Amino acid sequence: MVEHGPLFGAMLQEFEGAARILNLEPGIWKTLTHPKRQIIVSCPIQMDNGEIEVFTGYRVQYNITLGPAKGGIRYHPGVNLDEVTALAAWMTWKCAVAHIPFGGGKGGVICDPTTLSRRELEALTRRYIAEIIDAIGPEKDVPAPDVNTNEQIMAWVMDTYSMHVGHTETAVVTGKPLELGGSLGRREATGRGVMIVARESAKHVGFDIKGATVAVQGFGNVGSISAELLAGIGAKIVAVCDWKGGVYNPKGLDVTQLIAHVAQHKTVEGFAGADALDNAQLFKLDVDILIPAALENQITMDNAPAIRAKVLVEGANGPTTPDAHRHLHERGVFVVPDILANSSGVTTSYFEWVQDRYGYFWTEKEVNERLEAKMCEAFNAVLKTAIKFKVDMRTAAYIVAINRVATVTRLRGMYA
Ligand code: NAD
User: Fold this and answer.
1) Active site residue 106
2) 312 phi and psi, to 5 degrees?
3) Considering the entire predicted model, what is its pTM?
4) CA-CA-CA-CA dihedral for 98, 99, 103, 108, to nearest 10
5) Does residue 384 form part of some domain?
6) Which atom of ligand 1 is nearest to the CA of 294?
7) How far apart are the C-alpha atoms of 31 and 7, rounded to whole Å?
8) What pLDDT, in 10s, does the model give residues 308-356?
């Protein structure tokens, strides 16, 4: 076993629980718990003051058995190899649960992008991509945005790669602006997937989504869009919290007006016709569906015992600690795990890659219809597995993912 840190250790724990149930043979077990490739690069950049700074960048391709590595690029001072490797492993399982032909990857650069000028950010992006250029490409590894990276940065990634290979290659990266090969529906994709699995969970648990009450923590891309789409199918969004405060109206919040309020005030706080509430109060509400869509480790043993929701849909990555998850499952709360609940972001990235390679672009309706089909397929596969093995949905999602990668590994055989 290669040396690893706490985040990769957490990934291994989740892996082992499912691998044991699957009775995974030792050889495949060892293969799937080692990253295929870890790349560390130094990126010297001339700063605006004329001095040279050297930034460290990583790209990890955890597993490429099912297809090219897929995963975002993160710009953050806290980036490290343990984090990038664990996130690349989680992308492997997420792509496998979503049933798309991708492996798992992740990249990151240790930097504080808030202190960089636009020119410095562009120079850093281009140099980082130039340093890893031999390892990426539409057939090899397809990056995407993550924390502190965006459409513009993906446009620079695409341009740098294209300049090196001598032709325009849009399929090297996803999350691009629409004008250069981005996909319609990508911005709304994760929230749309959260809405779909919440709706399917209500069916399974046995309540009507029409009139079901919903509380959402976080009102950014994932939180606001899932709230808007759930309201669109008749659910009642009664509470929303963000970084600054929260709002509550038991009769239901007008989500479209709330989005307009946030566009103006940068927070839900102060929205007319609602009472104030905080995160702690939001988690305690007697609602049908609770959606954490903000940060990791929000639901812990400090607040899980007070949660009264029937269904918890993890829009965010890692919002529930393992002990809180165990507690909720034992109490009968139906938890839809992050690697399933928010996988529609990467599924739509797959659609973007397909459209770029095809050179033919789908309407938003086509994207949404295909996403609906893929999300329902993934949800049903995980639910069937949870019932078959009498396990929670998180363990079931890992079982589905590991089984898919293990099956293909066996079929391909060991080279050498
Ligand atoms: P975002 O930055 O658009 O929104 C985050 C929201 O969380 C904001 O409303 C912010 O105010 C709120 N927030 C921050 N701190 C908070 C706190 N302490 N209490 C309550 N709310 C707080 O981010 P996003 O893209 O919506 O991502 C949210 C989560 O979903 C993250 O865990 C992300 O990794 C995950 N995710 C996002 C996507 C995607 O496509 N955007 C895909 C998969 C997973």
Assistant:
1) yes
2) -120, 120
3) 0.96
4) -20
5) no
6) 7
7) 19
8) 999 999 999 999 999 999 999 999 999 999 999 999 999 999 999 999 9
